[in-house]
Write a structure and sequence with these properties.
A hairpin with a 2-residue loop joins strand 8 and strand 9. Helix content is about 30%, strand content about 25%. The strands form three sheets. Strands 5-6-7-3-8-9 form a six-stranded mixed β-sheet, with helices on both faces. It folds into two domains: about 160 residues, P-loop containing nucleotide triphosphate hydrolases (Rossmann fold), CATH 3.40.50; about 70 residues, no CATH class. The chain starts with 8 loop residues before the first strand and ends with a strand. The protein has about 260 residues and is an alpha/beta fold.
Length: about 260
Amino acid sequence: MPSEELPLIELERIWVMRGDKVVLRDVSLRIGVGEHVAILGPNGCGKSTLIKTIVRECYPLARPESRMAIFGKERWNIFDLRPLLGVVSHDWMTLCTREITGREAVLSGFFGSVGVQPYHRITPEIERQAAEILTLLEIPHLAERSLTEMSSGEARRVLLARALVHNPRALVLDEPSNSLDVFAQHELREIMRKLARAGIGIILVTHHLADIIPEIDRVILMRAGAIAADGRKREALTSSALEELFGLPVSLSQRDGYFHLW
């Protein structure tokens, strides 16, 4: 159950700029530990910047009325925060400048690095945990394969394993189904469901409505850098709300706990 005493995220009226552009505008948000939440909106609405702010890659403007806390703390050493949040983002792949195997990618999750460096100490316990998470996600066969030789779906599973290997308190997924084919999208969503049922908190950022697995019951709609709606899935996901969000007529349907746009 979400913790009422120490929420995972607590934002009060924050503003974030990237360069000379305001990307987040007066955002207030509270997400409990263990909660499953989807943040839905079109490209460019500020979803990814919100995630980068949560994981301390972006910082809010200093304003008297603004406040930001993670697990109840307003100030963090970034190296202490990283093990608490498992982040799956396309950004990590763009940082890879050499051949990295699936095993090395997963091990790097312990150090918040891109690959394993000579000064990193790989203990037998770390090796065991990496092997266990590869088995949990059914990808031990990818341990010695280079990321460049994997399909998009296989690489995404490895990134999930990297995010989970240090047993974080929440999993943060930034547009996880982008570039995946239909089969790989289905596999990814089944893994997400498995993790949600295991009790791992999930914060999902997406512009694909079908990414919102049945276990996610709270949906936050974002538009133009602000929160347009925040509530139970059945109440937030209406045809009129989605038409306004995406700026075109839509037809909404539901099947097996998933919502779809037509």
